[in-house]
Amino acid sequence: MELGFVGKPNVGKSTLFSAVTLANAEIASYPFTTIDANRGVAYVRTECPHNEFETECNPKNSKCVNGTRYVPVKAIDVAGLVPDAHLGKGLGNKFLDDVRQAEALIHIIDASGGTDLEGNPCDVGIHNPLEDVKFLEKEITQWMKSIMFKDWHRQSRKVELDGKKVERVLAANLSGLGVTENHIIPALRGLDLSEKASKWSEEELVEIADRIRSYSKPIIIAANKSDLAPPENIKCLQELKDYIVIPTCAEAELALRRASNANLVDYEPGSESFKIIDESKLNDKQLNGLKKISEILETNHGTGVQQCIEEAVFKLLDRIVIYPVEDEHKLTDHDGNVLPDVYLMPRGANAKDLAFKVHTDLGEKFIRAIDARTKRVIGADHELKNMDIIKIVSNV
Questions:
Q1: What are the residue boundaries of the structural domains of the chain, listed by start?
Q2: 3-class secondary-structure state, position 37
Q3: Which range, 15-29, 153-167, 202-216, has the best average confidence (pLDDT)?
């Protein structure tokens, strides 16, 4: 799974990315600081079942801290997007190429209104952040449309002559973007389109592209610089329909994670507070900075950064957590590691889907599965539940 960190330049995009990944992304107060995409790993939190079974876990593909399992998620911070990026303005073509495989997008917005539409600094409150929401979606829609309907006159005629399913053709055109028929079929549903694809108007092509974008590249909004934002800006953003909007303060989160990494503070990502470990190791400037951050956390109930990542995964993408094991009694793999792996699966996934996720051979030679809690045998089409612990039985 990959999350794309997107937005116009100079909104704190690379700061937020650095906070969740502790990667050394270049950060500066001018447009196009990010030219080459930065890649890293973020984490979402879930409960580790080892306490439930009164045992100790040995994580392999994740980590466990005090009973909380941190599950890795790929993250990519791409070049800032400006109006008409789909026509090549700014670094638009590079941005759009970099974001191809992202399953969801975190749109970082300067909620303070302190940057104009192209990312240039302006006085706080001057720019309306609501304008940023629509422009980014428009750019991605136009980009997808240009790929999906390239040479459409010829393709649509062929669809009509050969009797091919139009969703199959569109999916093939967008396969490089991670778009499948499962995204396209519901996007087309309910549209009053001509049965002849060659008769679709330009406006209808844009509407189709926009609906496919919303299904294949869902967006969550990080209302960043929330500590500087006029209250009415946050209120207007949170009143947007059909959006998850999380107020964030990326600078505070990055400072806390770096301080925690240096053993200067005790801070758990997502927490509403932190504790200074040894004040003697901090100078007056650092202490004053941490005092301001403490006030931000108290006012906003945290920095919002970790919450944004987790809502993107668990709400926007609707993922559930599954623990595969080889021994349903000891909860171990073949090396004796307890609860070694954890996977984020789409809600509605079944036991065979999990087998394929673990290894292609397990999926192809699947026989049955066993629920480690109930010890009951379950079939290939058994729908998984969040926090299931499952043994896969196969001919491998």
A1: 2-133+218-313, 142-213, 321-394
A2: coil
A3: 202-216
